[in-house]
Automatic annotation (TrEMBL):
<feature type="domain" description="Bacterial type II secretion system protein E">
    <location>
        <begin position="195"/>
        <end position="209"/>
    </location>
</feature>
<dbReference type="InterPro" id="IPR001482">
    <property type="entry name" value="T2SS/T4SS_dom"/>
</dbReference>
<dbReference type="Pfam" id="PF00437">
    <property type="entry name" value="T2SSE"/>
</dbReference>
<dbReference type="InterPro" id="IPR003593">
    <property type="entry name" value="AAA+_ATPase"/>
</dbReference>
<comment type="similarity">
    <text>Belongs to the GSP E family.</text>
</comment>
<dbReference type="InterPro" id="IPR027417">
    <property type="entry name" value="P-loop_NTPase"/>
</dbReference>
<dbReference type="InterPro" id="IPR050921">
    <property type="entry name" value="T4SS_GSP_E_ATPase"/>
</dbReference>
<dbReference type="InterPro" id="IPR006321">
    <property type="entry name" value="PilT/PilU"/>
</dbReference>
<protein>
    <submittedName>
        <fullName>Type IV pilus twitching motility protein PilT</fullName>
    </submittedName>
</protein>
Length: 366
């Protein structure tokens, strides 16, 4: 049976979009290079939207949606692609957002990511976190890191995802991918079982609560290499978020565990390219070392994390603003967009001046 939503999904692929938004009262919209663009079709009625969304759901998902008014699931459409779907109700009407995902991972080289990302991906043990807002490319980066391990280590890679977005085929490694709701009941159950599945590398799709964080840290401390994501904006906030998952009486121990097991934090933001051809990824990269470990362990020094990263260029570390300045210098992004996406506009303006650029030329690309 052909899905009624299929032409809209095809439009996402043809227009190099990332998401399809279905909402009552307006036409379907596609996100292209960060901007929502309406399709030239009639606005959706409540009945039409309900039909479009319901026909994408397996029976068990439909039952869950009927009971809770929310559902996360994957949708594969032959000849078009695979989508991650979040369905919901807003003011009583059904709506959903479908994210286009790749069937095969891109490599770190194809993504143009710095060499330090490969070094972090190939750590034998410890914890690496990839963070950023929804739609910032965390899944793409993590899948490339998993692919790097898959190509170089004869290891068992276990992923726990909600849902599985990118399918990995065995290369040198053996890859086991488990999906919440289909293969396991929840994150905590899957993490408890993971320790009995002889993994060398564990990918946790998202650290959502204290139990998952504790399990991930425990796995990293006992010789496994763990990768996961958080919805945080920079490295300092990432550290604080992890600590804040726990009650005060546990936080000292968590700080010490994180300081010891953390290998790096990769934070991402997508920035419109100066040439209008899509978006480029700006990264803050924290690589753990004695100074960073001390700042994580000591709450009085956590505020110094950004300064430590800024002075860590020797090991591949960089702040967002340092990376954005380089992107302005090489013409990847405009001064205006670079300043809009910077963590500290004043500091970035100072760095631009030192590089010989007038930061007031906000409408110019270098």
């Amino acid at each position: 049976m052909t899905l009624q939503i299929a032409p809209f999904l095809q439009a996402v692929v043809v227009n190099n979009g990332s998401d399809l938004h279905i909402k009552v009262g307006g036409p379907p919209r596609i996100r292209i290079s960060g901007t929502l663009v309406p399709l030239q079709v009639d606005p959706l009625t409540a009945e039409a939207a309900e039909t479009l969304i319901r026909e994408t759901m397996p029976a068990d998902v439909a039952a869950h949606f009927a009971a809770t008014n929310e559902a996360d699931y994957a949708l594969s459409v032959p000849g078009i692609g695979r989508f991650r779907v979040n369905a919901f109700r807003a003011r009583g009407a059904a709506g959903c957002v479908l994210r286009l995902v790749r069937l095969n991972p891109m490599s770190l080289e194809e993504l143009g990511l710095p060499d330090v990302i490969r070094q972090l991906a190939l750590e034998p043990r410890g914890l690496v976190l990839v963070t950023g807002p929804t739609g910032s490319g965390k899944t793409t980066t993590l899948s490339a890191m998993v692919d790097a391990v898959n190509e170089t280590r004869a290891a068992h890679i276990l992923t726990i995802e909600d849902p599985i977005e990118i399918v990995h085929q065995d290369k040198l490694a053996s890859v086991t991918q488990r999906e919440l709701g289909t293969d396991t009941a929840d994150w905590s159950v899957a993490m408890r079982a993971a320790m009995r599945q002889d993994p060398d590398v564990i990918l946790i799709g998202e650290m959502r609560d204290a139990e998952t964080v504790k399990a991930g840290l425990s796995a990293a401390e006992t010789g496994h290499f763990v990768m996961s994501t958080l919805h945080t904006t920079d490295a300092k906030e990432t550290v604080n978020r992890i600590i804040d998952f726990f009650p005060p009486h546990e936080q000292k121990q968590v700080r010490l565990g994180l300081a010891t097991s953390l290998r790096g934090i990769i934070c991402q933001r997508l920035v419109p390219r100066a040439d209008g051809n899509g978006r480029a990824v700006a990264m803050e990269i924290a690589v753990n070392g004695p100074r960073l470990a001390e700042a994580i362990a000591d709450p009085d020094k956590t505020d110094t994390i950004e300064d430590i990263i800024a002075s860590g260029g020797y090991n591949g570390a960089q702040t967002f603003d340092q990376h954005l300045v380089r992107m302005v210098l090489d013409g990847t992004v405009s001064i205006r967009e670079g300043k809009l996406m910077s963590s500290n506009t004043h500091d970035m303006s100072v760095m631009l001046k030192r590089a010989g650029i007038d930061p007031t030329l906000v409408d110019e690309a270098v």
